[in-house]
User: What shape does this take?
Amino acid sequence: MGAGSARGAAIGAALYGLATRAVRRLPRDMSLTSAATLATLDRTGPRRITDLAAVEGVTQPAMTALVRVLEESGLVERRGDASDRRVTLVCLTEAGASYVRTRRQAGVHAFERLIGELTDDEVEALAAALPALEHLAELENREGPEQ
Assistant: This one.
């Protein structure tokens, strides 16, 4: 299927709509960029502020300010890099990792409730689509912030 096909556009519109509505249901206890930064650190491990800024699509000064707030909240800490003393890494604290797990689990439960409303055939169709959805997520991760 070509990227410009009507079928691709319809699937893209449905996935975009679902993602948009899912984001609206997330807890609003912190900004999406803050939550995404914590999730990035959880997924990739300690990172430099410049790397985090690039991944999250914000400026380095904005990420520095965000990390300061997350640090004051006890969700991240800064540590020196053992292999290069000039480098400071941002690391999740246990509280930060716990926050990411709790937020992720809330999202999973929200989708579980919705999936419970589907017919058996619809659930089977979603299960059959899982490999394609996982591949799509890998492709999206590889592209990074909006291109």
